[in-house]
UniProtKB/TrEMBL annotation:
GO terms for biological process: cell wall organization; peptidoglycan biosynthetic process; regulation of cell shape. Pfam families: Asp_Glu_race. Keywords: Cell shape, Cell wall biogenesis/degradation, Isomerase, Peptidoglycan synthesis. Belongs to the aspartate/glutamate racemases family. It comes from Coprococcus eutactus. The gene is murI. This is Glutamate racemase. Provides the (R)-glutamate required for cell wall biosynthesis.
């Protein structure tokens, strides 16, 4: 049994949506969250830049002596997870991917829109995922450049982001989609707006809970689960020098 912290990183604030699911599942663990807000968003960067930033985030967490690392970013997972696992084979590294499987299995022959960053949708990993499930459902990628920026600025509702999301979703909604997959960890923070635009009959999926379950499974196999019955701690760090960023981390986590 191991009481060291679990490290979680994201391009910015989005990964807190994953952290919340993880803490809910394993409240006795200790956590260190690192948001790379000074370099957000990752979704419009080159593969080389995303890999470099992911390595920097990983090194920050390893310097804190974490026992496992969660890549709470779909884009960073797609680009860097395989490389990071090769570089650090002795530590469990868990990623996240768009929750396409549960969306496809939810309803027979449904239509599924996948909202994600341009980088995530352009990578081979997503194309393989889409190809695998395209026989089961009609899948419509929805690139969302700029959406993560709203979350980083603390804008989760209001006329501006509503109109922005309406523009992104209009082509998919015209196809009468049955489900929307939130393929970026920033997007759950604007899920209420997305649901309002899409309507109550459209089901929304994200991959946070599946990532939490996989982390728990990996920790159990490696005998790294903490034996404590007391509630663990959560520490927040950011590459941003803006003091409001850490304050926003706490607000999002506690919301």
């Amino acid at each position: 049994m191991d009481t060291r912290s679990i490290g979680v990183f994201d391009s910015g604030l989005g990964g807190i949506s994953v952290l919340r699911d993880i803490v809910e599942l394993m409240p006795c663990e200790n956590y260190i969250y690192f948001g790379d807000s000074a370099h957000a968003p990752y979704g419009t960067k080159t593969r080389e830049a995303i890999l470099e930033r992911s390595e920097q985030c990983t090194n920050f967490l390893l310097a804190k002596d974490v026992k496992a690392i969660v890549i709470a970013c779909n884009t960073a997972t797609s680009v860097a997870a395989s490389t990071l696992r090769q570089q650090y084979p002795s530590i469990p590294i868990i990623g996240i991917e768009p929750a396409l499987k549960p969306a496809v299995l939810w309803k027979e022959h449904d239509k599924v829109a996948v909202m994600a960053t341009p980088a995530t949708l352009a990578l081979p990993k997503f194309h393989e995922l889409m190809k695998h499930y395209s026989k089961e459902s009609d899948i419509y990628p929805v690139p969302c450049p700029g959406l993560a920026d709203y979350v980083e600025k603390g804008i989760f509702d209001g006329e501006e982001i509503t109109e922005f999301l309406k523009g992104l979703l209009a082509p998919s909604l015209e196809k009468h989609v049955d489900a929307i997959v939130l393929g970026c960890t920033h997007y759950p923070f604007v899920e209420k707006v997305i649901q309002r635009i899409a309507g109550p009959d459209v089901k929304i999926f994200n991959g946070a809970h599946g990532t939490a379950l996989e982390l728990q499974r990996r920790l159990r196999i490696a005998e790294l689960l903490t034996p404590s019955i007391e509630k663990g701690t959560v520490e927040f760090y950011s590459s941003s020098t803006n003091p409001e960023t850490i304050k926003l981390c706490h607000q999002l986590f506690e919301a």
